Amino acid sequence: MNVFDYFFESTKNLGKDFLLGSKETISFKKLYNNSLKIATFLNRYIGANKNIILISPNSKYFITAYLGILKSGNTCVPLNFAIEQENLDFILNTTECDTVFMAKSARSKYKIPSHIQVIEEEDLDQIIANQSIVDYYVEVEKNQLAEIIFTSGSTGIPKGVMISHENIIANTNSIISYLNLTSKDTMCVVLPFFYCYGLSLLHTHLRVGGSIVLNNSFMFLGAVLNDLNDYKCTGFAGVPSHFQILLKKSKTFKTTPFPDLRYVTQAGGKLHTVFIDEFVKAFPKKEFYVMYGQTEATARLSYLEPKMIHKKTSSIGKPIPDVTFKIVDDMGKTLGVNQEGELLAKGKNIMLGYYKEQSETKMAIKNSWLYTGDVAVVDEDGYYYLKARKKEILKVAGKRVSPKEIEEVILSVEEVMDCTISGYDDDLFGEAIQATIVANGNFDEVQLKEKILHACSKKLALYKIPQKVIFEKVMKMSASGKKVK
């Protein structure tokens, strides 16, 4: 089943608004028809089974293009609208993309090869105005590729996670089930749709006939609080930094009633217990879901039910419906209660693999089990706890960051002899970035730090720039000659 048809199975004729807000609105029926027109256009002029890139902030434009691409039998590749040119060039080349949907606000920042067709908002509107809907059906196999979500790989080169139509349907069904979502739910969306957590909000509310409110300016906290109340939002989803900013930076958040808010969800990294306790104390009648997931699992793997938030506060909970966990040692042997090992997951939501990366895929998926790279334990009640990450990847404000990518940029500064990127606990971002520098010869620390940060600002997205830069005199090396981090 094409996931588009799954989303609209019972909602395609609804006159109710799916998208709410002061800037843009659209009903289920109009979104369905507009997306079908985009799908018809793509099939007629581009074909099927092509990779189509989508770069845009959350908007009606993004949603319409995204759904049209899925319906057309093509593969959507949603990218960060702040992606570096070098990474965009790599993905354009790797995916052999010849069509890009790109918001006008992002278009001026990038150089796109002349042979690639770029469709902006005005172009999309023109297609919808001129295109009739053709009664057709693109046959889709359950394991057919629906989207490729690129994340930072351990080498610094973006790695494409291949998600099928079945993956999305399975994960959406599970999330709807444990969150008890219905057509009465309205979600305040501050998470970008190029991120799997953000996409899961779009998917679930489309399926149940709920609504979403888009807020692309989270730093203006007053606007977020107003949206929650003005549009009677029943749900809010955020990464750790969202909750930490709301709790620490907003003077009115904890004293605002939010009468319609039923629940909040948190994923994208560990939110420290102190913040969970602070939120639950301020809003004792709101359901707080701690969740754990990976892009490789479409979005979600586990959740901690709200009634256990006090007893199992630091737990990631239990697997979501239709997902199975186990913990293994380095030899692959299944471990028991309170024994530390790597967390493995199995379910229909597990990715097809990494795009054009067979060796990486074989390392990540073995006998249908996803090797998460996270070290965990399970207690006697069946609740799981993360202890560490085996992988190098840092998570800054819910975004995955490759240390090697940053190290490469800093090492391009002439005076830098060595650079080690590491993470440290941060109240706002959950994990922040530290650069430890060994410089060559005599140098002024202040001037060199400025030069390093300038180089980073030219080549890296803002969230990848180190918050701390410290200097050491010599490299620390082990007896074998390897650098000690």
From TrEMBL:
Keyword flag S-adenosyl-L-methionine: no
Keyword vocabulary terms for this entry: Ligase
GO biological process terms held by the UniProt record: fatty acid metabolic process
Superkingdom of the source species: Bacteria
Protein known as: Long-chain-fatty-acid--CoA ligase
Domain AMP-dependent synthetase/ligase: 16-355
Family, similarity comment: Belongs to the ATP-dependent AMP-binding enzyme family.
Domain AMP-binding enzyme C-terminal: 405-482
SUPFAM superfamilies linked: Acetyl-CoA synthetase-like
